[in-house]
Design brief:
CATH class of the largest domain: Alpha Beta
Strand content: 25-35%
Distance between the termini: 51 Å
Number of helices: 7
Helix content: 10-25%
Shape: globular
Structural class: alpha+beta
Bound molecules: pyridoxal-5'-phosphate
CATH architecture of the largest domain: 2-Layer Sandwich
Radius of gyration: 21 Å
Order of helices and strands: EEEEHEEEHHEEEHEEEEHEEHEEEHE
CATH topology of the largest domain: D-amino Acid Aminotransferase, Chain A, domain 1
């Protein structure tokens, strides 16, 4: 270990330590827009013309910038490459055919990013600068927001350590970026999931509730094994007993059993999903009983055996609502009811789309319209 190792996290800034945040905007001189085939977008592979960049150096955030999307150079010794100090968010901008566009509950992503930052010993991003960055960038590239029913502009804020230093310590400098990627539907058909009882995504005291890169890296191998067996996603169980359902890949999980919406309660091991929160609120608004509590695999097996499991779906920004077609547990594979018969998840999916396209009332003020 290095002699001058420091485990101190970067301090959270007092407002007076934050530089003025007029964003320096350098526009592209050659938009890629005319080359894009919006009907055939591969998820996460096409990027809009501009990106946002702001570094944290010498204990303060530096000038915020919007610039043409481009490659960047980094030291091979950058801390993020070696020790994984990296957090990110996933959110979306939506546009309707009248040209109105906006963000869905960006405040929750901003807060969650800063919660992840604290856990990963990184500086928090001032909420007002974060929000300004989102609205300036999305407004500048608004022509990149697709208008198709299931299409949107995926927004990827990411914060990572850029000290060039080999030794386990919290970096003193960081880069915060926001990338934009126009996308179509994430899943084109219902998904098949496998209950994971061997590998673990997150344990008590770990980083499960933070959206940090390592959580996803660690999930790739078990997900690949499940994929090889014909499953799209895993249903993670708790690390201690592998007896309770937690969440699924990049989605929270929900079940409808005898008319009630049941979802695992949050804790240190589950990501506090924006879609999950919104789905719970919608269900309550519609007078449906909602239970946030531990959900055991045994309870799920019983519901599948007794045909009382009416619906199962994942919810997350990328997919919104992903119907689950089949659940595998060891050698048993349970086939779930027809997707067309699933009242709640279909109603929710439709409502989310209508809301994001400004077609229905928004009593909770979830959409932040931009211009
Ligand atoms: C592990 C995990 N769980 C759940 C979710 C769903 O969260 P959200 O609805 O905020 O996208 C995500 C996606 O961000 C995720 O990565």
């Amino acid at each position: 270990m290095h002699a001058d190792n420091s485990y101190f996290c970067t301090p959270n800034l007092e407002p007076e330590m934050i530089e003025t945040h007029n964003i320096n905007i350098q526009k592209t001189t050659s938009s890629k827009l005319p080359e894009i085939d919006f009907a055939n977008l591969a998820f996460g592979k096409t990027f809009a013309d501009h990106m946002f960049v702001m570094d944290f150096v010498d204990g303060r955030w530096q000038e915020p910038m919007i610039m043409p999307f481009q490659d960047m150079t980094m030291s091979p010794a950058s801390l993020v490459i070696h020790y994984g100090q990296s957090i990110f968010e996933g959110m979306k901008a939506f546009k309707n055919t009248d040209g109105r566009f906006g963000l869905f509950r960006p405040d929750l992503n901003i807060k969650r990013m800063n919660k992840s930052a604290v856990r990963m010993c990184m500086p928090e991003i001032p909420e007002d600068i974060f929000m300004d960055a989102l609205s300036e960038l999305v407004s500048l590239d608004h022509q990149w927001i697709p208008t198709g029913e299931l299409a949107s502009l995926y927004i990827r804020p990411v914060l990572f350590a850029i000290d060039d230093y080999i030794g386990v310590k919290a970096s003193q400098s960081y880069r915060f970026m926001i990338l934009l990627a126009p996308v179509n539907a994430y899943y084109t058909k219902p998904v098949r999931v496998k209950i994971e009882r061997e590998f673990t995504r997150a344990a008590q005291g770990g980083t499960g509730y933070a959206k940090t890169a390592g959580n996803y890296a660690g999930s790739l191998y078990p997900a690949k094994l499940a994929n090889d067996q014909g499953y799209d996603q895993l249903l993670w169980t708790d690390a201690k007993e592998h007896a309770y359902i937690e969440e699924s890949g990049t989605m929270n999980i929900m079940f409808v059993i005898e008319g009630k919406l049941i979802t695992p309660s949050l804790g240190e091991t589950i990501l506090d999903g924006v879609t999950r929160r919104s789905a719970i609120q919608l269900a309550k608004d519609w007078g449906i009983d909602v239970e946030e509590r531990r959900v055991s695999v045994i309870e799920l097996q019983e519901a599948m055996n007794n045909d009382t499991l009416e619906e199962a779906f994942g919810c997350g920004t990328a997919a919104t609502i992903a119907h689950i077609e089949a659940i595998a547990d060891g050698e048993s594979v349970y086939q779930l009811p027809n997707v067309e018969d699933r009242k709640l998840s279909n109603k929710m999916m439709k409502h989310f789309i209508d809301l994001k396209k400004f077609r229905v009332n928004d009593p909770h003020g979830w959409m932040v319209e931009l211009s």
